[in-house]
Amino acid sequence: MRVTENMRLIGSQRALFANAERAHRLSEQASSGVVISRPSDGPAIYSSIVRRGDHIARLESRQKTLGRAADDLILTETALTFAGDIIARAREMAVQLADGGVSGAHRAVAAKEVALMRQELVSIANSKGQRGYLFSGTATSTPAFDNFGNFQGTTQPMEVEYSDNQRMPVTIDGFTAFKNLDVFGVLTQLETDLLADNPAGVRAGIDTLDLAHVQIVSARADAGSRTMRIHSIVDVTANAATTASSQQSEQQSGDLTKTILKLQEAQSAYERSVAITRQVLTIASAVERF
């Protein structure tokens, strides 16, 4: 008799604990709105949620990387604007100083200014962004140019992934921007002609300064175009991440109405288990007295 009652007691306690655990889990789901949070809640749906979570993480990481690339391209565009301004200023000086009536002393003073402009241009060409030197290609830890204007970077652009297995260049080639036509050499030649008091040479260099300016403006336009494209991709990526997050939330939430009904059933089952366990304990106590 005692063995039978003990077995009943053990069975009722197991049922009590199982119903309590189920009621607790359903209560958590109902209060949080998250129905699927572990494999046991639904293996297939849980696996889909995990895959979608990985996809969201990739999208968010890609969005951050693209954002940093866009920021660096904006810096690149700004640097090229300053570089273009320097060349434009040098051209204005060349036009004025090509006049035969300008004194040699005046040209000598201007030559010093051109030398400073050339140094400033090298500094601009060595501008840095979040990932290193903007015009060094993949050699981001190396200044794009030395003090003499010699190119030290690579012509291979930095790239970022904008879609699965799809990459795009996000840097402007420093060689193309500054050395296809050597803009540093153009300023050096202007300085040389000014020091030599050579107005004919200064006049001959004006067309070359125009070409140098066009080259830099073209590179700036390329940077602007890439920036716009990246911003467009960032918007698409952000929308994709938002959509995926909503879908994931819907999967995790499941049918909340059904969950609440299940919770009510589980609470009723738990209450019945408590009542049954009390009855078994009462009977077992009575048996013990006999």
What does this structure look like?
- By secondary structure, the protein is mostly helical.
- It has two domains: 2-33 and 255-289; 51-248, f41 fragment of flagellin, N-terminal domain.
- The chain contains seven helices and four strands.
- The protein has helices at 2-32, 43-97, 104-125, 174-178, 183-195, 199-253, 256-289, and strands at residues 128-129, 132-133, 159-163, 166-169.
- The strands form two sheets. The protein has a two-stranded antiparallel sheet. The protein has a two-stranded antiparallel ribbon with strand order 3-4.
- α2 packs antiparallel against α6.
- It is rod-shaped.
- The model has no long low-confidence stretch (mean pLDDT 82).
Task: Write a brief structural summary.
The chain is mostly helical.
CATH topology of the largest domain: f41 fragment of flagellin, N-terminal domain
Helix content: over 70%
Instruction: Tell me the strand order in the biggest sheet.
Output: 1-2
Number of domains: 2
Looking at this structure, what is the CATH superfamily of the largest domain?
A: f41 fragment of flagellin, N-terminal domain
What class would the helix/strand composition place it in?
A: mainly alpha
Count of distinct strands: 4
